[in-house]
Design a protein that fits this description.
The protein has helices at about 5-20, 25-35, 40-50, 55-65, 70-80, 90-100, 105, 110-115, 125-135, 145-155, 225-240; strands spanning about 155-165, 165-170, 175-180, 180-185, 190-195, 210-215, 215-220. By secondary structure, it is α+β, with helices and mostly antiparallel strands.
Length: about 240
Amino acid sequence: MNYQGLITCTKYAFPPNSLGYCGPDAVNEIVSYMKQKKVDLGLKMMLEKFQTLYPYLKLIAFDNNISDPFNPLVVEAYWIGNSLLKNVSMKNFYNHLINVQNLKKKIKRKDLEYLVGKIPLGALPHHSFHVFNIFLRTGNFSTFHTLNTMDSCRIGWGKVVELKPLKVQVLTKPLVLIKGKLYLGNPVIKDILLEYKSNVISAYPKIESYISFHWNYYCDMLNVRQVENLEKYTKYSIYLANQTI
């Protein structure tokens, strides 16, 4: 088992899981792993129960001839973005959306045609593509996305500008809707929580460091390359979402 890949994936998957939005009903168990920074077969099996996440990891790994879906590069490709995404074939991505994610039974035919029409345009299996281009949330609750839920569900990033008890303030670009099109807006100051409901407290980032966040909870520190990639793939997914098929 890959320690770094599993721990990193847990950091990104846990915030919505702690809110009950996706993944197994195993918050306390996952909290225990995070507190102890422990990795074993139990944690791996819990992550495999995330019905949206895990199939994406398997897809990226398979098309890059990587045996372990929790390889750190595979995990990074899905949540942050890297060159592995470009190696996923259109055919396999189509099959993933239609049959693996079973979207043919979850969304309307018109919405499905709209979605798969993005694949020939260069759609990539990045987390943000799923968020921006599938109108229905596909976790534990089948509800339609709003601007607010899309902004919260995507992986955000920002520069830390102030440290506060149990939270940090970051300078970040929010998702905005202008004349029916999605964009990243002007930078704003946003509070990002460091303490989950379950009292798992992440280490405090430093001022001017870059961090990622999910559902307004801190995920991880980002290096310059990761910031650039996350912005690049997020903007590309927004571009695809704005295309009329």
